[in-house]
Specification:
Elements: H1 9-18, H2 29-41, E1 47-53, H3 59-65, E2 68-74, H4 78-88, E3 94-97, E4 111-117, H5 125-138, E5 139-150, H6 161-169, E6 174-181, E7 185-192
Parallel strand pairs: 1-2, 1-4, 2-3, 4-5
Antiparallel strand pairs: 5-7, 6-7
Organism: Pseudonocardia nematodicida
Pfam families: Methyltransf_12
InterPro entries: Methyltransf_12 (IPR013217), SAM-dependent_MTases_sf (IPR029063)
Amino acid sequence: MPPRTDAPAARFAELYAADPDPWGTRTRWYERRKRAVLTACLPREHYAHAAEPGCGNGSLTVELAARCDAVTASEPDPAALAAARTVLAGRPGVVLRGAGLPDPVTVPSGVDLVVLSEVLYYLAPETVGRVLDRVAGALRPGGDVVVVNWLGRPAEAPMSADDVGRAFRGDDRLRPLVEHRDEEFRLDVLRRR
């Protein structure tokens, strides 16, 4: 049975304490390929301001910074945030915040891109609903949101990739643009009406 509550922050602290890159975001082909597919699916070449809650050690943030004037990236785990600060040092327009979803500072008002990569399935359905409301309220009309999740199911994940995808695709404030599904992950791009 999947848990009914958000995954405990202590679990992620344990992972980052044991390894500064616990998911191999810099080395594993899965992670590099997922980032390549994600950036290729972005409908616009350039964005003014992106939000990336749950940025981990900043591997994806580096690529978003190349496509955006500004990126607000956030991570609640101090070790991961420190690693992200190192990777992103000197990159103009990148602001890092020590916060996690559903904290509203993770998705500032007026963004035109929100990237939610492998974070939402760790949240309970009620929390995902609050995040969805925040994203829809913070995105400019015509702004895009990317939701990508591994198709496996971590033990501490209350939701599956498909559960999360259905929640976002079922929201009338968002119009689906891209649905990518392969043997490893699901990626949805939706536009704010």
